[in-house]
Design brief:
The structure is a homodimer of 436-residue chains.
Chain A lengths: L15 H20 L3 E2 L5 E3 H5 L12 E3 L2 H9 L5 E5 L4 H11 L7 E10 L11 E10 L5 H16 L6 E6 H10 L7 H8 L7 H12 L1 H11 L6 H7 L1 H16 L7 E3 L13 E6 L6 E7 L14 E6 L1 H10 L11 E3 L7 H13 L4 E3 L6 H10 L4 E4 L2 H6 L2 E5 L5 E4 L1 H11 L1
Parallel strand pairs in A: 1-5, 7-8, 12-13, 12-14
Antiparallel strand pairs in A: 2-4, 3-4, 5-6, 6-11, 7-9, 9-10, 10-11, 14-15, 15-16
Helix pairs in contact in A: 1-5, 5-11, 7-8, 8-9, 10-11
């Protein structure tokens, strides 16, 4: 009996072309973030259960892939009916960043501009487009309470999309403080805030009439109508919003102003008074990136000034965003921007074992000029080696037989046209580089 | 009570300079492997327990970080005293590659030249220099039984070391078939092969006299003396070796010949008749990279024609090698090749919120010219912003106050000398680029 070759449900393998496309995207993201002065951090994939569960425990419990205790500790845990697990896989990059900053913050630049790209794991039911192992790309500024931090994070993320050739997304902005002020002003009692936000958050997916009906049932008809007028208006009524929280509106206007001034697409930055982005995490401005070819968001973020509180570090202002990497890859694949990557410039065939050294010498010379040259390992039939060159999507196949070796030349075969010509190594280099 | 900020024992966080150094090394490795026509593959971090344990089970059991079953499956497992775990973290990259090739091989180029770089996890006791999460870099050719595959893998790994500025390692070569032939010829019975190899493998760590003593006790004095003469000779006796296995010696000589012919350091490739590289894995040539500043090896590999047998795929010839990435990073750090990485070219200060848009505009213009420009988020005191620029190890701090904004210039402060000068954005770009 043989063992199954499929990865576990919700986990994926990637074929070489996919790996190349994902790698290139990650390299572009890294390069852009670095060009803004963000520094990449890295933490372990595995965290202590206490870190993952936090003080509250419960909430994240079902998300976590838990690691079984080992050796005697496991035997003891089974016998005493205690926790069977002491470690778990991280389910996001924010909690590890909070731990990281609490530990190393005093030796890091202040403020600390960080980015982190890596896999996270969630023990959720796998479904189309939802994986149990996926890549997150976070970018954060820790230690600044200036609205300039939001501008910097959003600008950097927009620069990533631009560098990847993705259409400029629509950037929606709101402020958690503004939401609460508007709810207050509409007469929603404090204990109804979260239920009201949960209903309003469905505006994207549910008909407006249904949202209003649910809202009326939850907070009363009067407050629901007031909320409709302020939060669901076609064009946001700045005066109405400002009368709820002048401070929050001024801050949002500053952020929007700086983003519009620095962009070729100022129309793409909009105030969205009903944008929620989760319910207990953010403490100030929130933002979300939308792209016409996706139904949901392409990323988002916000201010979370409570980042490090679980780790006993004093109040730390922080603001961060993240790109939905798996969704980004969907867009790049659909746009055909993930094709033809990773092919070698040429395949060097091996005519015979006796002539291998000359072939290796020429391959090394071409690599020295910056070309990628794939040497076929065995002296198989040339037909088979040409087939391999096709499979690798190489531009050229190179042959050095006894005649070529004696004359100091190389036979260069263009695989698209089938055209062949003997030439010196220098000429071959120029020919291949011209296409590469 | 606050939660601990230290990663679990044996796991590591990396500070930004370390991340940059590790990232640069991985990028160099990838670039070199790609230039040889190797294609990067990627598999999931998590595998089914059946894949990790293989047919035999047992052996790897203690190495694996096992993932607890979830929900009802866990309750059932506890009640019925069955396996508590269904998944585990991969402990190497070879087993996943075998699964990958068994599943996708028919749609991949033939032969398939693959590389894989990523973390693996081992539930071993953590100790100095031994981690429970570490990076492996594997490079493999699957589907070729030519000795050209060995030449290609070893040449590519040597090219990696050269591109990283590491001294050319000594490359030791041997062949599993030769070892067994020599043992046979010395009169070691088949059932004593593995114990004899285990003893001979200690030649690096244990005195030669002790090795001989143990060997005599295990296989008898006569065979031990015969082995000493052939396997432990100062200079390998090719005739003696060839009389044991002419085929294996011819193959090793072909590999050595091609490596020497293609290298500027032919002296660094040596036949090492006592090199073992593990006991049940490899089936043909084996090799190991040694570096003067390390006591152990810097990497190694060999031929393992049984790669895919657990997955029901017919006999697949394969040959691969790997670099000891954590040891490589030690060498790079000691050589100071991991310093000063990831610093931005300049920090743009924010004189005031009113002048922020102009500062952002100039920063964007400089980034457009390929420079990395780190914008300070808030309009803090300039002294604090200069301190930040020092912390980031930036070359320059840029200031745009009301006077500079009015004149369309930028104040450029060289942080090493403290020298300051107002200049146009174009001049600033040239100045910063000259140092960058």
């Amino acid at each position: 009996m043989s063992i199954a070759t499929t990865p576990p449900s919700g986990f994926r393998d990637f074929l070489p072309a996919q790996v190349a496309a994902r790698h290139d995207a990650i390299e572009t993201i890294s390069r852009v973030y670095r060009s803004f002065g963000f520094q990449r951090v890295a933490t372990s994939a595995v965290e202590d259960s206490s870190v993952l569960l936090g003080k509250g425990g419960g909430e994240n419990d079902k998300l976590i892939f838990k690691i079984l205790k080992r050796g005697e500790a496991l035997d003891r845990a089974i016998a005493e009916k205690k926790d069977l697990s002491d470690l778990g896989l991280r389910f996001d990059l924010t909690l590890p960043l909070a731990r990281y900053y609490s530990k190393y913050g005093s030796s890091l630049p202040h403020p600390f501009k960080a980015f982190n790209i890596g896999p996270v794991w969630r023990a959720e039911r796998a479904q189309k487009g939802r994986y149990r192992e996926f890549t997150q790309c976070d970018v954060d500024i820790i230690g600044s309470d200036s609205w300039g931090a939001e501008v910097e994070v959003i600008t950097a993320i927009c620069a990533v999309f631009s560098s990847l050739g993705v259409d400029h997304p629509t950037v929606l902005l709101n402020d958690r403080a503004l939401i609460y002020a508007v709810l207050d002003r509409a007469g929603v009692p404090a204990d109804k805030r979260i239920p009201a936000c949960v209903i309003l958050d469905k505006l994207d997916k549910v008909e407006r009439a249904k949202v209003l009906e649910d809202l009326s049932a939850e907070v009363g008809v009067g407050p629901a109508q007031a909320l409709e007028k302020i939060m669901m208006a076609e064009t946001p009524d700045l005066n109405a919003l400002a009368s709820a929280s002048c401070e929050a509106v001024t801050r949002l206007q500053s952020i929007l102003g700086a983003l519009k001034a620095g962009s070729k697409r100022p129309d793409r930055f909009v105030l969205a008074p009903s944008l929620m982005r989760g319910f207990d995490y953010y403490t100030g401005p929130v933002f979300e990136f939308r792209h016409p070819s996706l139904s949901g968001s392409l990323g988002g973020g916000g201010r979370y000034d409570n980042l490090t509180e679980n780790f006993g570090t004093p109040h730390t202002p922080a603001c961060g965003g993240s790109i939905g990497f798996e969704r980004l890859m969907l867009i790049l694949e659909e746009a055909g921007k993930a094709d033809g990557l990773g092919a070698p410039d040429a395949v060097m065939t091996i005519f015979s074992d006796e002539l291998r050294s000359r072939a290796l010498e020429v391959a090394a010379a071409l690599r020295g000029k910056g070309l990628s040259v794939d040497v076929f390992p065995g002296a198989a039939k040339l037909k088979q080696q040409f087939k391999y060159a096709d499979q690798k999507k190489a531009g050229y196949a190179l042959v050095i037989g006894p005649d070529e070796a004696a004359r100091g030349v190389v036979q260069v075969k263009a695989l698209a046209s089938g055209e062949e010509q003997a030439m010196t190594v220098e000429e071959a280099c120029a020919r291949i580089a011209a296409r590469a």
